[in-house]
Design brief:
114 residues; mainly beta; 7-stranded mixed β-sheet
Length: 114
Amino acid sequence: QVQLVESGGGLVQPGGSLRLSCAASGSIFSINVMGWYRQAPGKQRELVATITSGGRTNYANSVKGRFTISGDNSKKYLQMNSLKSEDTAVYSCYAIDRRLVTYWGQGTQVTVSS
C-alpha cells in the first residue's frame, strides 16, 4: 500500500511559478512510476509529467520546457514555471507500483489568473 499527500497548489499570476509536492509513504520502494495528471473544468484529464524509479521523465507537449518533475522515493516535486491560464486545473499526483496498482493523492487546485 502507498499513501500520497499533495501540497503546493494555489493562485498565481500568468508567468509565475508554483511547486507542487507529493509525499509518498508506505511501500514506497514498490513504486515504479509517479507523476501528475490534471483536469480542468469541462476538459479531459491530461497526463502532465511522469518519472520512473530509474529517473526517466516524460512530459505532455503542452508543458515541455516549463514544468520539471523531480524528487526521490519518498517525495516528488513538480516545478511549474511560466504558468499560463490554460494550466489552471486540479492537479493529482499518482503512483503505480510493481503490481500495477495505481494510487492517488487528494488533488490540489492550481489557478493561473491576473
